[in-house]
Amino acid sequence: LETATVKQIHDLILSDPERELAYASVTTVLNRLTKKGWLKCSKKGRAFSWYPLVSREQAQAIQAYEQLQQFLAISNPDIVAAFADSLDTASLEQLDAIASRLQAIRRQREER
Fold first, then answer.
1. pLDDT tens digit string along 62-72?
2. 3-state secondary structure labels for all residues of 11-77
3. The whole model's pTM is what?
């Protein structure tokens, strides 16, 4: 959905028999995402419509960044090392992307 009303989103969620969510909960989540700058709300007649301000890929990148910052805030080298050990399940493409980014960060720090 590019633009959707609360009812459309609620109906979509309820189309999955495994999920249950109150209509008011959908409204609350949409309002919170709007306040955070992820969605924009506009009124069409009597109904409000929401649409994303960021792409799915951007949202995933933002979430990954925030989770990584929380992880690094622990600042325990053993935990960071355990994370590195878990990369053995990553694809070669993922490992190359991580290595490339780490090299770029290292170069930037060395230039300072």
1. 988 898 888 88
2. HHHHCCCCCCCCHHHHHHHHHHHHHCCCEEEEEECCEEEEEECCCHHHHHHHHHHHHHHHHHHCCCH
3. 0.60
Amino acid at 40: K
Cα(53)–Cα(11) distance, rounded to whole angstroms?
A: 22
Where in the sequence of the chain do the CATH 1.10.10 domains occur?
4-52
pLDDT in tens, 52-109: 999 989 989 998 889 888 888 887 888 878 888 888 888 899 989 989 988 999 999 9
Topology, domain 4-52: Arc Repressor Mutant, subunit A (1.10.10)
